[in-house]
Amino acid sequence: RSDAGVARFDEAIARDQRIEPADDMPEGYRRTMVRQIAQHAHSEIIGMQPEGDWITRAPTLRRKAILLAKVQDEAGHGLYLYSAAETLGADRGDLTRRLIEGRQKYSSIFNYPTRSFADVGVIGWLVDGAAICNQVPLCRSSYGPYARAMIRICKEESFHQRQGYELLMTMMRGIPAQREMVQDAVDRWWWPSLMMFGPPDADSPNTAQSMAWKIKRHTNDELRQRFVDMTVPQAEALGVTLPDPDLRWNAERGHHDFGQPDWDELRRVISGDGPMNAQRLRRRREADEDGAWVREAAAAHAAASSPAVSS
Ligand code: ACO
After folding, report:
1. pLDDT (tens digit per residue) in 201-238
2. Which residues touch 96 (CB under 8 Å, ≥6 apart)?
3. Which of 23, 48, 185, 229 is the most buried (most CB within 10 A)?
4. What was the ipTM of the complex prediction?
5. CA–CA distance, 110 with 43 (Å, rounded to integer)
6. Burial bucket for residue 19 (CB in 10 Å: 0-12, 13-18, 19+)
7. Does the CB atom of residue 81 touch ligand 1 within 6 A?
8. Residue nearest to atom 18 of ligand 1 (CA)
9. CA torsion sign, 124 to 126 to 279 to 287?
10. What is the atom index within ligand 1 of the atom nearest the CA of 210?
């Protein structure tokens, strides 16, 4: 990298301009972007599994159509994000291999089982709600293709969040057993949802540099607080209890105080030892193997129809 290239990059960041694929960028910036975008893409693709498990068991045709559309949106987000990673010179097949071999991460949240149909609603409400909190600021992330991808993804995530909340409202108007299913799902997903934002700031090795490069606009703890403040009134409107005895409004701070998730659990889940890690990766590997003939056929077709080959 030339000195002029370094200066151009630093100036663009200082002026809040976007970094585009052909621009000079430090190797560390490129690596960080590939890491975050790939992890995000993997999360969308693996994230199809927990809810996908309920497509054949949705209670009505309407719920099934909504769920199918939502899971397809997640596939779309994944592909969109792999395209963004490719603008940085990453290879999609290589990223998938790294995921399958456990060399690249995906979100901890998708390593928990979906035990009842209420989980579909709670994933929409809490998990997609947390994703929106995290991703709306990423629409202003410094890397252009990632920031632009986030705009469309956030719009779709908002629809996902609404459908989850509407599903839960419907169940809460139902019989006592349905209300109990909703409360049980909230109890199981609350703490893992808070963990989605990553470790506490003091234990987050990447935050300081990513904030300096304007990749991240807020720290993990800031976004977690924003999520709690946003969710408490929604829980009240729904009529469910959030399973945290320390949760209360703090008028002095103008925010809710809340308890700490089990950070050891997050570490275990991230390192591959969560309740569903093995199954999630096995299924991803099987899907990759089952799809190999499609990729080979597409590559053969592209080679046969390219002018270089036919001339
Ligand atoms: N699940 C899995 N890994 C995590 C999680 C989590 N919830 N939180 C943090 N990590 C990993 C980080 O990737 C990092 O690992 P690495 O350095 O080996 O890559 C390590 O734990 C330390 O964390 P941080 O220093 O805080 O890492 P970072 O600055 O990248 O912040 C965060 C983590 C907030 C998840 C950030 O990467 C981000 O905003 N990513 C984009 C959003 C995203 O990936 N969402 C996916 C789930 S949402 C959905 O798909 C519906």
Report:
1. 999 999 999 999 999 999 999 999 999 999 999 999 99
2. 288
3. 185
4. 0.98
5. 7
6. buried
7. no
8. 105
9. positive
10. 29
